[in-house]
Amino acid sequence: MSPPRKSRIVSEVPFDQDGAHRGFLRLFHSVHSSAYGFIAIPIAVFRNGDGPTALLMGGNHGDEYEGQIALANLIRSLDVARIKGRVIVLPMANFPAAMVGTRTSPIDGGNLNRSFPGDPDGTVTQQIAWYITSELLPMADAVVDLHSGGSSLMYVPSVLARRPVEPAKAELSLRLLKAFAAPLAYLPAGGQGTGDDRTLSGAAALHGVVSLGSELGGSGTLTPVALRIAERGLRNVLVELGILPEADRVAGEGPTRILEVGGNDWFVYAPDAGVYEPLVELGDTVVAGQPAARIHTPETPWREPVTAHFRRDGFVLCKRVPGRTVRGDCLFHLGTDTGL
User: Fold this and answer.
1) What is the pTM of this model?
2) What is the overall mean pLDDT for the chain?
3) Which one of 23, 42, 289, 293 has the fewest CB atoms closer than 10 angstroms to its CB?
4) Biggest distance spanned by C-alpha atoms of the chain
């Protein structure tokens, strides 16, 4: 069996030396304006002796800002003397996308969270995915990948976790989910359209690494509430892993409500193009058959709007933001209680 192919990306910072190290990943990129240049992806590594390793990521999608800011704040504030083990922080994972505030890369159109495991000889986005897959995940005991709804969706701030098959890792995953102390959590069951094994969580699962994600708001903006939840969650995960001391744990406002998100029935999609009128709001409880939205065609104002319906009971976890929509856009998705 041939050895795995080596990433072409080079790190300026060491991963196995004690101390706080800040620098860049060099992704060499030859273009007209810079023949021998590189894309500088910021990274920080904090290490203090032996112990667990946490990989903390933001900017997987460039128009999701909560993780980028929370991790930048963490890089400036984390005291390496207080940790036990290692923390790797990648606040702008898809750096080209993050720099222009778009979900996908302006260089190759790549969606990083649909590009795993990546390709060491591929496009810029594929090379980033391969570096994370082949270099960073093998070092990690757990990974936290902070997301929100980006420019097109808005979420009730929540944390999520894929359920590992191995009992010990499933137990750790649930512990970390609750430690994050978000008001809501959900357990995705691999619904269509959400990426499955092409996501970071899919790559982590293949490497046996416990992963957490989040959906901390969205609408292409940043809210104080979502940022507070992200910063508290990051600290608490480091405490739960034993990297930070118990004294650093920050209590949430109350117990975490844990929901499940399954397949196609949990989602409502636009049945036609037009301007969508939401008929419910985030946080509402709905029932199967209830009208979810009307799609209007103001350009043909005498035409009756088309109505989309919920296909199951549930809690409105996510809604579309832009009013203009086309057939196939996600308008809502639901969560249903798990009893956990």
Assistant:
1) 0.94
2) 94
3) 289
4) 70
Report the 10 Å Cβ neighbour count for 12. Answer: 13
Concatenate the DSSP letters of all residues of 106-157 into one string: TTT---GGGSTT--TTS-HHHHHHHHIIIIIGGG-SEEEE----TTTEEE-S
* For the chain, counts of helices (H) and of strands (E): 6, 19
Contact indicator for 43, 88 with CB cutoff of 8 Å: yes
Task: Supply 118's token pair.
Answer: 């990546």
Give the residues across from 324 on adjacent strands. Answer: 275
**94 phi/psi in degrees, rounded to 5:** -95, 75
Contact (CB, 8 A) for 160 and 190: no
Share of the chain above pLDDT 90, in %: 90
Residue 170 DSSP SS3: helix
- Are the beta carbons of 140 and 54 closer than 8 angstroms? yes
Least confident interval from 137-141, 183-187, 196-200, 304-308: 196-200
